[in-house]
Amino acid sequence: MESRTIIKRARAAMCTMMVTIASACSTATPDVPAPPRSTTAAPVVEQPSYISVPVNVRVLELEKALNAQVPRALWQIDEAKKDCVPAQRIFRGKLKITPDISCRIVGAAVRGPIRVGGAGEVLTISMPVSVQVAAKDIGHVLKGETATAAARVRATARLGMTAAWQPTAKIDIDYSWTKVPGVDLLGQRVKFGRKVDPRLQQVVAGLERTLPRELAKLNARAEAAKAWNKGFTVLELNAKNPPVWLRVTPKRIAYGGYRVVGGDIQLALTATALTETFVGPRPEPNAPTPLPPLAFDRRTGNAQLYVPVIASYAELEPVLMKALGKLAKKGITIPEVGAVDVQFRKVTIYGTDGGRLAVGIEIHAETPRKVLTPTGLVWLTGVPVNEPGSRVVRVRDLTIGGTTDSPATNLLAKIALSPETQAALQEALTENFERDYQKVLGKANAALASKRTGDFLLSAKLTDVQNGRISAYGEGLYMPVTGRGSATIRYVP
């Protein structure tokens, strides 16, 4: 009897001690300081990009200039000709049986409207010419006969540019009679083409001089300088959460040829520009530099742009809280403790030193039979990682921010470090990053599709996109994204 009494008293004392411990642990909070917040800003990425900068001139402007320069009345003829109708001969030309019949050739040529067109690298010019020629005082007997004729002048020009920004043109000009001038006199056909041809050739030669002169008036250098100065700009890629900016700084400009596109003569220039991506406040554009000497390069307008994807910590917190809420309903089993009822009450996430991620989780836990019922804030730190090209984010080297001698604190730490909690953390990061990735790229493509800054219009499309490795900075989890595609900058006043 006495031994049984001793055992009962020992059990009662142990229970009293466990209840006391449980009571003490139920209000325990981990005495672990929060990791320091990182103030490191996301990097400014600098990368040269090749951006096509076409300078357009309306074909109509050149057409107007040519029509203004070339007179409508091209020439007039008033010449005497001794042999309008040559003498008739026999015996192999030795015996003349009729005399040469003289006349006066009087006429004029008038041009129609000059039309300019073309496609690709070839500029075409077309000009109709109408001729009226009369043979008068025929043999001093007949009053005369009048002939009408028509010709068409055609020119093809391959355009170029010197290093001094002076346009050049390799021109091939010809003409053809659509109706040769001639009359019937005394039963013979008399053609006046030989008399008219030299005059028409003069018109052709004049057009060869006029075309390069009018092209020079287009002042390609001045237009290129305007586009160059406007190229020093800052473009908005994302308005908020977070704001993302692209600063463009031209470095070099190269000539890639003329092209006739629709109703435009397009001077193809390619600018090598430094593109810098900023996250946060809008940066100031760099001051324009003078237009550099013209280089020669037929490189296409491929662009390489860097667009960061940043997952804001404030946006990550409710996502992780939701994932932990699902986990709480399932419960967590801790080795040597058993199934634990868990409530996750608050999540705090930020970047800390060493490129690590700090995760603070406020936990309330109840062990079986409520031996321990602690509530406290546990801090974990880990390194966010992903493979290049993958948006699957994992947290490596997840560790507790510190340890104490408190069993309650250690229980909360085990819950935070459990495979279930780590899986929830990684799932939340992965889901959020995929959503942010698609959202930011969609906004960037929309912004670059047609972005006007003053008289300057940027059009770009990212077609080949690759992302790099994730890292933690002060403003969020940062994933660099390289976008390659086509880009043009137009001066459109």
> Cα-atom Rg, whole angstroms?
44 Å
pLDDT < 50 runs, ≥5 residues = 1-30
Q: State which percent range the strand residues make up.
A: over 45%
Structural class: alpha+beta
Tertiary shape: rod-shaped
Helix content: 25-40%
Average residue-wise pLDDT = 75
Topology at a glance:
Blueprint: H1 2-26, E1 45-52, E2 55-58, H2 59-69, E3 73-85, E4 89-90, E5 95-96, E6 101-111, E7 115-119, E8 122-138, E9 142-161, E10 167-179, E11 182-185, E12 188-191, H3 193-217, H4 220-230, E13 233-238, E14 244-261, E15 264-279, E16 295-296, E17 302-306, E18 309-311, H5 313-330, E19 332-334, E20 338-352, E21 356-366, E22 375-385, E23 394-400, H6 407-416, H7 419-449, E24 451-453, E25 456-467, E26 471-473, E27 476-479, E28 481-491
Description:
The protein is α+β, with helices and mostly antiparallel strands and 493 residues long. Helix content is 27%, strand content 47%. It is built from 7 helices and 28 strands. Strands 1, 2, 13, 14, 15 and 16 form a 6-stranded mixed sheet that branches. Strands 3, 6, 7, 8, 9 and 10 form a 6-stranded antiparallel sheet that branches. A 5-stranded antiparallel sheet has the order 19-20-21-22-23. A hairpin with an 8-residue loop joins strand 21 and strand 22 (375-385). Helix 5 packs antiparallel against helix 7 (419-449). The termini are far apart.
